[in-house]
User: What shape does this take?
Amino acid sequence: MFKFDFDIDDTVEDIPGLSFAQENAPSTEEQALVEEPYKNIPLQHLIDCLPPLISCSPLAVPLSAGEILSIPRRDLFDARFQVINEEDSDNAIGKDAADFLDAPSDLLHGVYEGGLKTWECSLDLVDYLDKNVDCHPEGKRILEVGCGTAVPSLYLIRKIFSGARPPHPTEIHLQDYNASVLELITFPNIVVAWYMSDASKTYREGAAPLLDDPEAEFPPADPSSAADIPISPELKTAFLASLKEYSINLRFSSGSWRTYHPEHRYDIVLTSETIYRSESVPPLITLLKSSCVPNTICLVAAKVFYFGVGGGIAAFVKAVQEDGGDPKAVWERNAEWEGKSYTYIGRTCAYSLKTSVSSCFRLCLEQCDR
Assistant: This one.
């Protein structure tokens, strides 16, 4: 089991870089775990899993332009409450989540891969998406691998809901190892992103009579403020109507990358903090290759090294080279993107026992021959 010290569930201020300790070596039993098979999660199932109320708080994302972008996301305590409240129900969701929600570890290999928490490289990915016009989501097929809280996808969804109705449909496919992460965090975050956008304005303005308390009000669509959002049948209907109005097709899937076979290729492929374990790199590379065409923008945000588990940029690049790729360091935090097929976003950590200093760089990898 492993414990990260840089998660940002409560704040992104004073992020100390990367430092996580190996608590103990995996046992033979842990090594023999059978990974979860790939499966699609129907949208209706996720809608049925929504609780009566979602508590959310803003995540502050610092941008290179000097601005602070607020992305609302469900509070982790709220997800815990839902699991506890429903644990005796026949229709309880996130049954496996109870095993790791309060575990003293951020990773349980083959059981839980960290998706309930937001990791800092996902913020780097949002910053990159924000300043690259080639990454506009409208009319694209988008895949986020190992999405967890799905902060990069939430940013893209917010852009779609805040703009004009796109003339072409957009597909957003979110994948995480744990189905319970999609049920408890990923999909509720998408609903919150919709509620906090202009797309929910008609619903919010007409929904006051739906509240039990005639003097109560729905929270304003302010992504910079915490809120408790009532989840009613009318809200679910309005959310689905907005997906149709904005031509957004949401897809969800869970399970191991080794058993994942993309049904088609994508225009944009995103993933962050997914190369921390060296043995997971080969199936990730296979997945990325099978999900891309020559013009695909594939962004992988990661640390240079993950202490305790051995993964990192160097091991990832070496594996790609051995698979026929030609990685080149081409981008630093304030430099222009070179527009290659694969772009790797990295947060360099100089680690010592007392301090860690971080800066950012990006690597660009030519499209591998297939």
About this structure: The radius of gyration is 20 Å. Confidence is low (pLDDT under 50) at residues 1-7, 10-31, 329-342, 348-370.
